[in-house]
Amino acid sequence: MDEPIRDTRTLVIQLRDRIANLIKDDGLKPGDKLPTEAQLTQRFKISRPAVREALKLLEQDDVIFVEHGRGRFVSAMSAVSVERPITVFESVTDMAQHYGYKTANRVLSIAEEEPDATTAAHLQLAPEERVIRLERLRLQNDEPIMYCIDYVPRQIIPARLFDVDWSGSLLSLLERYRHRPRMSSAKVSAVMLPHDVAERHDLRGFGPALLIRETCFNAAGVPVIHAIDYHRGTHFSFSLVRK
Predict the structure, then answer these.
(1) What whole-number distance in Å separates Cα of residue 21 and Cα of residue 41?
(2) pLDDT, mean of each 10-residue run, the chain (243 residues)
């Protein structure tokens, strides 16, 4: 049956997830052959280059493997169920949607400033370069579920700060300036929301959080975001495969 994609997430990410679901829904087992690129193109009503990129992501995740001249096959890793892989790179908006949340973004502050030494190092900034500091809350039904701080090199977004809509996806905004992140390096730890943040923004009931400090890189390997995201522990969990 034809299954056209109608979703707001990044197209290739959508397609990767749909093909992974196809493997499960069609009962494909390790060693079974995957449908061809042409068949997947027809099934999802999508371009072949997008299908090829999605298949590359599945190959990188060891869900499928390629035998040259024979095609693509389901790997043993496909039998491992991972609800939320921590290695998946996607926007916070896309991640929240995966959990079934329809979040609203509330901008708490936006400013241009001189970065501290840690931020400058993560973004590989020269001594005189400045950053945009974006502070936001992610709300689900008016309940705070994420507290986020993002640092972006000022030269990437030359527009006046008040001329930019900061409430949407930061990845999509950077794509307009040809700097969309494609990968990241992250560190994860379990923490409490900083006391001063909880007091300043009336977040005393936020509780334990999963802190992800992440530096995101564009396709050329240039760091374009340094993110500090507090995921409310009652709403988020991540999984991983050990091999």
Answers:
(1) 16
(2) 48 86 89 93 91 90 89 83 62 74 91 97 96 96 94 96 93 92 91 96 95 93 96 84 64
Residue 229 has what DSSP assignment?
Answer: E
User: pTM of the full predicted structure?
Assistant: 0.70
Instruction: Write down how long the chain is.
Output: 243
Terminal Cα distance for the chain, rounded:
35
Token output for 81: 């169920």
Contact partners, residue 196, CB within 8 Å, separation at least 6 = none
Token pair belonging to 46: 């999508």
What own/partner pairs with CB < 8 Å and gap ≥ 24 does 215-219 have?
215/122, 215/123, 215/184, 215/185, 215/186, 216/89, 216/181, 216/183, 216/184, 217/181, 217/182, 217/183, 217/184, 217/185, 218/174, 218/179, 218/180, 218/181, 218/182, 219/180, 219/182
Give the number of other CB atoms < 10 A from CB of residue 75.
Answer: 18
Nearest 5°: phi and psi at 185?
Answer: -120, 130
Q: What is the pLDDT of residue 80?
A: 66
